[in-house]
Amino acid sequence: MTSAGRLALVGSGEYLPVMQEIEEWLLQDRPPRYVQLATAAAPEGHRSLDKWHHLGAEAAQRLGAEQVIIDVRTREDANDPKWAALIDGAGLIYLSGGNPGFLARTLIGTLVWQAIEREWCLGAALAGCSAGAMALGGYVPDFRHPRAGGVDGLGVIPDIRVLPHFDRYTKWVPDFAMRPLVAPGTYIVGIDEDTALIGEPIIGDQSAAADSKDGFATWQFRARGRQSAWRVEADRRYRINSALALRVNTGHLG
């Protein structure tokens, strides 16, 4: 049976030595082919993209993996078969930081995103850091206009809204300011810097089967890294100390 690869939502630290253990876990038993998309940083210009590509090269070298840059900066790029083809055979596909709304709008429904979904469904690990983590949810909030102004996410983990850099974020945003982000049927997940929420199917659970009739499976997610991950509710927050069960969109498996 086809099984989707591991998932990681990272609060910060992509491509840095502090997060190498997470990247090793994601690449475990997978081809050493490290596919990297810095698309979220495209609005910041060439210099920012060059920085991410350089950091990605260093990370791939430490891991003994081949760096594969998917240099998608626009929706036109994301529909270019040249970039989609380079995703074939990925061991790990990584969406790095920048503007989460731009990332989601640029990729959703394109050839590149279809290729990413296909490789993930074939077993490649899929990770997003900061903006990348936010975009993997079902909805990407706009922190400046939390009651409106967000965009649809890529929907891999449809029931979550991710708050990256959570330890830093909460130093200047009071808890009550997060209330507008809370919505019925959703989880607000805060992920501290240098920390990840990592997920894989629940072993032996029939709901995790790839042929789930409703197109979704229940996976378990755990915090791993230097700090913590949090479940945020309207009036409080909880440190995630045990497995958090979340729906994952496995409808592309077959």
How would you portray this structure in words?
With 254 residues, the protein is an alpha/beta fold. The chain has one domain: Rossmann fold (3-Layer(aba) Sandwich). The protein is 26% helix and 26% strand. The strands form three sheets. The protein has an eight-stranded mixed β-sheet with strand order 3-2-4-5-1-10-11-14. Strand 2, helix 2 and strand 3 form a beta-alpha-beta unit. The radius of gyration is 17 Å and the shape is globular. The N and C termini lie close together (8 Å).
List the defining traits of the structure above.
alpha/beta, 4-stranded mixed β-sheet, 254 residues
Helical residue percent band: 25-40%
The structural class is: alpha/beta
Instruction: Report the span from N to C terminus.
Output: 8 Å
**Which class in CATH terms?**
Alpha Beta
Give the ordered list of helices and strands.
EHEHEHHEHHEHEEEHEEEEEE
From the alpha-carbon coordinates, what is the Rg to the nearest angstrom?
A: 17 Å
Describe the structure concisely for a colleague:
The protein has 254 residues and is α/β, with parallel strands linked by helices.
Show the helix and strand layout.
Elements: E1 7-10, H1 20-27, E2 33-37, H2 46-63, E3 66-69, H3 75-78, H4 81-85, E4 92-95, H5 100-107, H6 111-121, E5 125-129, H7 131-135, E6 139-140, E7 151-152, E8 160-163, H8 166-172, E9 187-191, E10 195-201, E11 216-225, E12 229-232, E13 237-239, E14 244-249
Parallel strand pairs: 1-5, 2-3, 2-4, 4-5, 8-9
Antiparallel strand pairs: 1-10, 6-7, 9-12, 10-11, 11-14, 12-13
